[in-house]
C-alpha cells in the first residue's frame, strides 16, 4: 500500500479473512464426551523463555448452572499459529458440584482439545495440555469453554443456581516455547495485541510534541484506528511525552513524532528523515517491540497515521451486516433493520440435548440507533424443541432480553411432546440500540426430582432438546432517532457515527490525562460505530455552529452555556468535588429535602398512594409519566459528590444538533472514569439523559429522559409513520385515550348528521 512520497508502512496490509465462528450444526448431547484427552494437573510456573498469550478478555469468568457455554476468538500471528503451543488454565468450583457427573471441556476452533472432571472446591487447580499441531491458524481462532455440572445431593430447581466454576483469567493463556512466536508479524501485530491477565488492552502513545498545536487531531484518529484494528472490549489509551513505558502482555507502545522530536528517546531509521514511516522496531534498551510512526514533518506523520487507519474507514451511509463482537462473544451479532428471520444455527446455537433441570442458552442480535419500538413491538421465536415423557406440567420456557424477563411459555401437556415452530412472542421493551442478548431458559420439572433418589442428580437421559432449526423473527419496527439518547451513543455511536460533516470536539486542555480520556472514549465509540469518527477541534462553543458536538474536560473548565443547555447546574463547577478517603460527606440539598418531605409528608395516605403506583407499574406497566398529555420539563441536575464521572446529552442551542458532555471534577478523575465506563461491564449501562459513575462504589446511575425530540432518519413512508405513532401512543396512554374519545365523538356526530338527512320526515 503506497502513497506519493510516503514510505510503505508495514502494518496496514488488510487482515486475513476471519473464519466463521458459528458452531457445527450437529446434535451435541450434554454428556461426558468420548475420546477426549483428560488433562492432568500441572504447575502454572512458566518455563524459561516461554512466551504467553492471555486469552480471556474478562476480569472475571464464571460458568454457571447445569450447562454453560461461552465462546470468543483470539487473533494469532502466523508465527504463533505455526509454533508448538500449550493451553493453560486454573479453575475452582462450588463445593456442591458432583465431580463424578460434572465435566469441563475446552474447544479450539470447534474441536475438543481437553476435558477435565470438575473437582477443585478447596482451592484453584492449574491445568495444562498440549494443542495438536495444525489446529491453530493465523488470524481468528475460536476459544470455547463448556461446563456440564450436577449437584451432589439436591434435585430441586433452586439447587441449580448453586453450581458454578470460576476460571482465573490471569492463569489462562497459551504458551509458546519457540522464540519466533514473540516476533511481531508486520501485518498482524496490532490485531494480535491481545489482553493482559486482567482482560485489559492498553495502548501507550509516547508523543514528545504532545502540547504542540495540530498534533491532537491525528493522534485521536490514530487511537480510533488502533481500537478498530484490535477490536478488544477493554481498551485504554495513555499519553506521555518523555519516557517509554515498560512492556507487558496486552500492551503496545506507539512512538509518534518527527526524528528530531524522538531523538532523546529513540533513534528513528534513516527512512523517516525523508518520508512518512509506520513500522515495528525494537527498543534496544528493553528488547521490546514498539510501533513507530514518524516522518520529516507532522504533515508526513499524519500521512503515516492515515495509512494505518484508512483500512478501517467506512462510508457512514453504508449499512453494516454485523456488529463486531467476536473478541468477547462469538459469533458477531447480526443487524436487524426490519422484517427479518434467522435460524438459531445462523445465530451460533447448535442442536443440543439436555438431561438436567434448568437449561439456558443465549444469542446476540443488534438493532440500529433509530430503533423505536419499546412500547408496542413484539419479536417472535419460532421454537423447534422436544421434551421427554417425564417432564411435568408446571414446567415452562422463559425468554430474557438483556437480563430482563420478556415472556414465559408454559408446558401443559403430559407424556412428552415436540414443538414445531412454536411461536413465542417476545416483547421488545427491553431492546436497545446496538447489542442485545436474548436468553432462552427451560425449567423442567419431573416426579423423579421430587423424590430425589440417589443417582438422580447424575442422570444422563435427555429431558429436553433444542434444535438449531428454530428461528428468531424481528418484525418491521419504527425507525426514528431520538435526542437525547445516550443508549444509542453506547450502542452504535449515534449521532456521531452517521455524521457526514465532522463532529465538533471541544477539549478544555491538551494535557496527558484529558487526551487519554478522550482517546479512550473515542476509541470505544469507534468500535461500536464500526469506523473512525471524524472530529474537528474547536477552541470555544461558538465554533460549533449547527454541528453535533462533544465537550470533554473537567467541570470547572466547561462553558457555562453548555452546562445550562444540558440542564446541569452551573453551581456544580465549584461544588462537585468527590469525597476523599477519611472525609465525611456533607449532606446534599436534595437528600435533606427528601428527608424533610418524608417527615412531614402524607403519612399512611402517602404510603398507600405510593404502594398503588408501584402496583400499577408492576401489573399494568402504567406510571405517572405515561398519564400526562405533555412530557414534563427536564429537571436541573446536580452531580453528587459521591460521583466522579459524568456523561450528559442534550440538544444544541439551535435545537438542530446533539451535544454530549463528558466531564469530571478533575483531569485525573476524567481519565479514571473514562477507563471505567468504557469497560465491557459498564459501557452497556450508559442510557438516558445523564449517566454518572462513582469510582468509590463502582456504581453506574442514569437519569431517564423526560422530554426528547424526534430526528427523522428514514425517508418518508406511511408505514414508518404509522409505527412511530403506534409506539408514541402506547407510551402516552392518556393522549391515546383522549384521541379515542374525540374519535368516538366525531363518529357519533357524523352518524347523527347522516341519519338526520335520510328516512321519512313527518
From TrEMBL:
Source organism (scientific name): Rhizobium jaguaris
Sequence similarity: Belongs to the AcsB/BcsB family.
Oligomer status and interactors: Tightly associated with the cellulose synthase catalytic subunit.
Bilayer topology: Single-pass membrane protein
Localization: Cell inner membrane; Cell membrane
Key words, A-Z: c-di-GMP, Cell inner membrane, Cell membrane, Cellulose biosynthesis, Membrane, Plasmid, Transmembrane, Transmembrane helix
Protein name: Cyclic di-GMP-binding protein
GO BP: cellulose biosynthetic process; UDP-alpha-D-glucose metabolic process
Main location: membrane
GO CC list: plasma membrane
Ranges annotated as spanning the membrane: 733-756
UniProt entry tagged with the keyword Acetylation: no
Pathway membership: Glycan metabolism; bacterial cellulose biosynthesis
A Pfam match: BcsB
Role summary: Binds the cellulose synthase activator, bis-(3'-5') cyclic diguanylic acid (c-di-GMP).
Amino acid at each position: 500500500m503506497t502513497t506519493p512520497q510516503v514510505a510503505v508502512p508495514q502494518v496496514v496490509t488488510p487482515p486475513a479473512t476471519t473464519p466463521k465462528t458459528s458452531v457445527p450444526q450437529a446434535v451435541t448431547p450434554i454428556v461426558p464426551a468420548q475420546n477426549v484427552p483428560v488433562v492432568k494437573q500441572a504447575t502454572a510456573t512458566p518455563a524459561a523463555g516461554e512466551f504467553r498469550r492471555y486469552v480471556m478478555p474478562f476480569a472475571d469468568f464464571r460458568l454457571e448452572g447445569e450447562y454453560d457455554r461461552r465462546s470468543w476468538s483470539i487473533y494469532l500471528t502466523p508465527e504463533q499459529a505455526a509454533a508448538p503451543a500449550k493451553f493453560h488454565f486454573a479453575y475452582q468450583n462450588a463445593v456442591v458440584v458432583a465431580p463424578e457427573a460434572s465435566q469441563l471441556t475446552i474447544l479450539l476452533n470447534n474441536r475438543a482439545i481437553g476435558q477435565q472432571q470438575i473437582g477443585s472446591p478447596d482451592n484453584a487447580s492449574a491445568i495444562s495440555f498440549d494443542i495438536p499441531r495444525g489446529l491453530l491458524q493465523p488470524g481468528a481462532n475460536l476459544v470455547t469453554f463448556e461446563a456440564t455440572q450436577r449437584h451432589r445431593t439436591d434435585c430441586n430447581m433452586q439447587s441449580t443456581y448453586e453450581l458454578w466454576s470460576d476460571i482465573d483469567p490471569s492463569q489462562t493463556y497459551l504458551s509458546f516455547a519457540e522464540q519466533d512466536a514473540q516476533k511481531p508479524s508486520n501485518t498482524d501485530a496490532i490485531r494480535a495485541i491481545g489482553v493482559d491477565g486482567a482482560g485489559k488492552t492498553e495502548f501507550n502513545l509516547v508523543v514528545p510534541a504532545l502540547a504542540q498545536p495540530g498534533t491532537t487531531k491525528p493522534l485521536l484518529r490514530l487511537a480510533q484506528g488502533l481500537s478498530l484494528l484490535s477490536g478488544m472490549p477493554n481498551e485504554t489509551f495513555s499519553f506521555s511525552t518523555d519516557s517509554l513505558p515498560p512492556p507487558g502482555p496486552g500492551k503496545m507502545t506507539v512512538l509518534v513524532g518527527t526524528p528530531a522530536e524522538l531523538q532523546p528517546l529513540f533513534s528513528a531509521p534513516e527512512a523517516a528523515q525523508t518520508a512518512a514511516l509506520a513500522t515495528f522496531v525494537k527498543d534496544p534498551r528493553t528488547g521490546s517491540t514498539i510501533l513507530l510512526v514518524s516522518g520529516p514533518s507532522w504533515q508526513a506523520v499524519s500521512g503515516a497515521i492515515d495509512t494505518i487507519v484508512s483500512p478501517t474507514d467506512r462510508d457512514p451511509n453504508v449499512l453494516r451486516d454485523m456488529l463486531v463482537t467476536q473478541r468477547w462473544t462469538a459469533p458477531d451479532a447480526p443487524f436487524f433493520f426490519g422484517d427479518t428471520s434467522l435460524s438459531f444455527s445462523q445465530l451460533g446455537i447448535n442442536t443440543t440435548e439436555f438431561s438436567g433441570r434448568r437449561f439456558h442458552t443465549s444469542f446476540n442480535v443488534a438493532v440500529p440507533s433509530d430503533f423505536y419500538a419499546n412500547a408496542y413491538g413484539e419479536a417472535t421465536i419460532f421454537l423447534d424443541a422436544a421434551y421427554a415423557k417425564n417432564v411435568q406440567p408446571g414446567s415452562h420456557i422463559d425468554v430474557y432480553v438483556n437480563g430482563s424477563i420478556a415472556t414465559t411459555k408454559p408446558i401443559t401437556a403430559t407424556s412428552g411432546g415436540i414443538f414445531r415452530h412454536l411461536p413465542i412472542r417476545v416483547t421488545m421493551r427491553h431492546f436497545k440500540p446496538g447489542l442485545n442478548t436474548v436468553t432462552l431458559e427451560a425449567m423442567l420439572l419431573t416426579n423423579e426430582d421430587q423424590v430425589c433418589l440417589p443417582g438422580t442428580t447424575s442422570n444422563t437421559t435427555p429431558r429436553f432438546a433444542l434444535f438449531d432449526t428454530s428461528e428468531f423473527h424481528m418484525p418491521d419496527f419504527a425507525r426514528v432517532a431520538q435526542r437525547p439518547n445516550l443508549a444509542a451513543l453506547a450502542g452504535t455511536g449515534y449521532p456521531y457515527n452517521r455524521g457526514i460533516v465532522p463532529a465538533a470536539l471541544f477539549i478544555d486542555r491538551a494535557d496527558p490525562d484529558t487526551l487519554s480520556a478522550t482517546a479512550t472514549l473515542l476509541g470505544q465509540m469507534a468500535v461500536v460505530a464500526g469506523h473512525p469518527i471524524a472530529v474537528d477541534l474547536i477552541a470555544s462553543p461558538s465554533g460549533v455552529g449547527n454541528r453535533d458536538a462533544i465537550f470533554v474536560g473537567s467541570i470547572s473548565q466547561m462553558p457555562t452555556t453548555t452546562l445550562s443547555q444540558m440542564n446541569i447546574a452551573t453551581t456544580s463547577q465549584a461544588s462537585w468535588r468527590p469525597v476523599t478517603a477519611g472525609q465525611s460527606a456533607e449532606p446534599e440539598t436534595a437528600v435533606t429535602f427528601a428527608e424533610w418531605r418524608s417527615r412531614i409528608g402524607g403519612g399512611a395516605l402517602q404510603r398507600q398512594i405510593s404502594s398503588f403506583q408501584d402496583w400499577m407499574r408492576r401489573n399494568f406497566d402504567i406510571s405517572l409519566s405515561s398519564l400526562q398529555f405533555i412530557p414534563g420539563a427536564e429537571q436541573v441536575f446536580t452531580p453528587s459528590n459521591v460521583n466522579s464521572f459524568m456523561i450528559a446529552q442534550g440538544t444544541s442551542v439551535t435545537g438542530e444538533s446533539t451535544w454530549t458532555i463528558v466531564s469530571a471534577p478533575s483531569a485525573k478523575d476524567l481519565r479514571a472514569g473514562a477507563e471505567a465506563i468504557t469497560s465491557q461491564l459498564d459501557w452497556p449501562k450508559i442510557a438516558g439523559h445523564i449517566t454518572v459513575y462513582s469510582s468509590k462504589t463502582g456504581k453506574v446511575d442514569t437519569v431517564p429522559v423526560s422530554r426528547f425530540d424526534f430526528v427523522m432518519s428514514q425517508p418518508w413512508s406511511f408505514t414508518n409513520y404509522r409505527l412511530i405513532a403506534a409506539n408514541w401512543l402506547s407510551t402516552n396512554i392518556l393522549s391515546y385515550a383522549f384521541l379515542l374519545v374525540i374519535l368516538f365523538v366525531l363518529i357519533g356526530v357524523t352518524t347523527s348528521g347522516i341519519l338526520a338527512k335520510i328516512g321519512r320526515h313527518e
